[in-house]
């Protein structure tokens, strides 16, 4: 456990140094994307392609801090990502009985996506609660369902 913690701290420090180096700053200016676009694209990439674990969360938090965006901008990004997911995949449905295997898997994937976005939005290091986050409303999730999905996600992260 101590080894994992030490490895995490070393990786975090390396990431911090790399993202704030003069070379990284020049690169950010040359690529033509604004920090909002970069953060939005990376969050989408991380949610869909990377395992949801403490390392990925640390990367997202570090990128959020390096972006120097305020909480309102980050909340706007998370809300936009949520709207795009709902537009592409539909609302979160808690009763998944009666679906075909394909529909069942798609709804479970929606549960996971909601859980990840909601978990990220609840992290004080990522976005303050005072921001205008409306993640639950966008996904059509009640407070009780949000807590259930969040607990399932935390269980998966701690055992996976």
TrEMBL record:
Domain Armadillo-like repeats residue range list: 32-122
GO cellular component: chloroplast envelope; chloroplast thylakoid membrane
Top-level taxonomic group: Eukaryota
InterPro entries xrefs: Armadillo_rpt_dom (IPR055241)
Pfam families linked to this entry: ARMH5
Protein name: Armadillo-like repeats domain-containing protein
